[in-house]
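Structure in, sequence out. Go:
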């Protein structure tokens, strides 16, 4: 679980302060207030922890290097600090500062000027032990210099072979940001490696994840009344040994009261996204973090409520952190004040984030809710 994040000089964010993230909740705010930028900062770190160089990770986030930084500031450095906790209650704190080189005509545009990983001392509420610390002149651990050369655009966490480093890297690289091109993908002909809905179904039906498939069918049948089952059609590879990863399959679905089988093309956007979010949640390893943008897109309010209930259940059962951006009254009213991060922006201070339960009006919010008002109504009238 990502407990908190602090961001400086990233896109619309000048200085976010410490943002405490809920285990299941939402990021709300007006259009262009900075909801997506918070998620993109996490995606940036996830890409780096997965082994990409800063330049390659930047290309996933924005078109040109300068766009990674707040364009209203002269500084060309950004800093991200993340606190995370694993299933064994080990707590890590990761910090990264990168700088854009003055000559951006060269291939390598960036360099890491500071990187640090710490682990919380279980016997102390405040003390953290340094796992490693790095700047352009040195790379050291708590016992002295570490004899390891690391490229100036590559995170040390990806190459330093240490148990705590491996655990922290796995946590960061298991951050999942859903992408519209994947969630809305209706391809029925897929491989085991594909990440769209049909690809997830193929993995579920492979045998190794049969429990996930049973759970998926059970949950989906409760939300989609007409849904019956999926069928996987595997082609024959004569004389060839083909691994699961290279095998191509055709995934078809069946519905009650419909004779024959249907391809993914027949699914409505709401049905497709509903199934995908359920399947993706079941597919994640325990302790992962899932971020979904505008979960309400294509959803009827009643469908959305049922989906949230099931995602909440899966999240608690598998200890998965699930956070979504939203404008939907139905999503906001489904949550408690402590589950919501309010996003707002002004020209001077950039984007700011605040947990509703820590807002200066938190007492007034509680009073408003106690009198029968809705959380969405309060937010929409007070924080336009």
């Amino acid at each position: 679980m990502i407990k908190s994040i602090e961001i400086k000089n990233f896109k619309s964010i000048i200085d976010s302060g410490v943002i405490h993230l809920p285990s299941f909740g939402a990021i709300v705010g007006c259009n262009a207030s900075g909801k997506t930028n918070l998620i993109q900062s996490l995606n940036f770190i996830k890409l780096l922890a997965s082994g990409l160089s800063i330049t390659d990770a930047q290309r996933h986030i924005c078109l040109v290097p300068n766009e990674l930084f707040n364009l209203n500031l002269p500084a060309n450095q950004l800093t991200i600090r993340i606190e995370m906790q694993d299933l064994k209650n080990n707590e890590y704190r990761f910090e990264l500062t990168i700088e854009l080189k003055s000559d951006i005509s060269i291939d390598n545009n960036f360099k890491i000027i500071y990187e640090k990983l710490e682990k919380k001392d279980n016997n102390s509420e405040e003390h953290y032990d340094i796992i490693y610390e790095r700047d352009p002149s040195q790379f050291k651990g708590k016992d002295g210099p570490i004899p390891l050369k690391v490229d100036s655009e590559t995170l040390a966490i990806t190459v330093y072979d240490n148990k705590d480093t491996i655990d922290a890297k796995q946590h960061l690289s298991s951050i999942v940001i859903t992408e519209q091109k994947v969630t809305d993908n209706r391809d029925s002909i897929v491989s085991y490696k594909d990440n769209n809905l049909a690809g997830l179904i193929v993995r579920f039906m492979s045998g190794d994840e049969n429990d996930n498939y049973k759970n998926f069918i059970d949950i989906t049948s409760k939300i989609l009344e007409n849904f019956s089952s999926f069928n996987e059609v595997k082609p024959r590879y004569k004389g060839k040994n083909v691994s699961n990863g290279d095998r191509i399959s055709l995934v078809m679905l069946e519905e009650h009261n419909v004779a024959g089988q249907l391809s993914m093309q027949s699914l409505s956007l709401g049905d497709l996204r509903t199934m995908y979010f359920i399947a993706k949640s079941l597919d994640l390893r325990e302790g992962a973090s899932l971020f979904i943008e505008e979960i309400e897109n294509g959803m009827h309010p009643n469908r959305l409520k049922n989906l949230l209930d099931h995602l909440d259940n899966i999240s608690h059962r598998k200890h998965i952190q699930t956070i979504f951006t939203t404008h939907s009254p139905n999503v906001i009213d489904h949550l408690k004040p402590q589950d919501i991060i309010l996003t707002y922006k002004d020209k001077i201070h950039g984007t700011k984030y605040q947990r509703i339960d820590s807002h200066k009006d938190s007492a007034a919010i509680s009073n408003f809710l106690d009198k029968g008002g809705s959380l969405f109504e309060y937010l929409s009238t007070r924080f336009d």
